[in-house]
Amino acid sequence: MFGPVRTIHVIGIGSGDPEHVTAQAVTALNATEVFFAMDKGAAKSDLVALRREVCRRFIRTPDYRFVELADPPRARDGDYLQAVSEWHEARADVWAHAIETELAADGVGAFLAWGDPSLYDSTLRILELVGTRVEFRYDVIPGITAVQTLTARHRIPLNDVGEPVLITTGRQLRSAGLTGDAVVMLDADCSFTECPPATRIWWGAYLGTPEELLVSGTVGEVGAQIVELRAQARARHGWIMDTYLLRP
C-alpha cells in the first residue's frame, strides 16, 4: 500500500456489560473517527444503543460519528450455507460503499463486535470480502465472550477435569447429537430438549446486561422452563441472544 490508507478496528466489546470492555479496546475506541453499525430494525435498536453507550462511556473526546447501515435480508429457505454466503456478499457491498464514502482516505473506522470477533461472528469473514472491493487495513481487538460470561455467572469451570469441550450450534446439536460436554450457540429451536432428561444444562440469555436470565439444572427439570422463559423474553424484547453449556 502506498500513500494514505484507511484503518478499520474490529473491537470485541464483551457480551453486554460495559465493564467487559478491555483497556486495549478503550485505546482503539478513542482512536476511532467513524463507527459502523448494522441497523436491524426497530426490534433490535437497543443493540445499536448498547454500542453507543460503550462509546459514550469510554471515549474521552466525543468527536466521533456513528454510521448505521441497512442490513440486507438473508434468505430463510433453501441451502443454508449458500444463503449465508450470499448474505455475506451483500453485506460486503454495503460495508465497502460505507467505508469508501464515509471514511477519509487516511481515516480510522471501527466495527464493534459482541463478545469476541473470532467466535460465531461474521465481521472478519465479511471484511475479507470487503478487502476485494476497497483498500484498507484492519486489526482485531479481542473481547470477553458469552461463553466466558456464562460460566462466570454460573460459577462453574468450562470443562470437566481433563475433558474437552465442543463449541457448536443448535443446528449441529440436532444433527449430530450430544457426545460430550458442549457449549451451544445460535439455537433458536431449543435443541437441548432433544437431549436425555438427565443431561445437565447451564443456560443464560442477555448475558452481562440488566435483562440477564440464568437457569441451571437437568434438561428434565428445567428444559420446559427455559423454553417458556426464552419465548417470553424474545416477545418482550423483539430479539434474544442466549447460549448454554451441556454435560451428559
Automatic annotation (TrEMBL):
Pathway the protein takes part in: Cofactor biosynthesis; adenosylcobalamin biosynthesis
InterPro entries assigned to the protein according to its UniProt record, in alphabetical order: 4pyrrol_Mease, 4pyrrol_Methylase_sf, 4pyrrole_Mease_sub1, 4pyrrole_Mease_sub2, CobF
GO molecular function, one term: precorrin-6A synthase (deacetylating) activity
Gene Ontology terms describing biological process: cobalamin biosynthetic process; methylation
Keyword S-adenosyl-L-methionine: yes
Sequence ranges assigned to domain Tetrapyrrole methylase in this UniProt record: 7-222
Alphabetized UniProt keyword annotations: Cobalamin biosynthesis, Methyltransferase, S-adenosyl-L-methionine, Transferase
Protein EC: 2.1.1.152
Top-tier EC class: transferase
NCBIfam families assigned: CobF (TIGR02434)
Protein name stated in the entry: Precorrin-6A synthase deacetylating
Origin organism lineage: Bacteria, Bacillati, Actinomycetota, Actinomycetes, Mycobacteriales
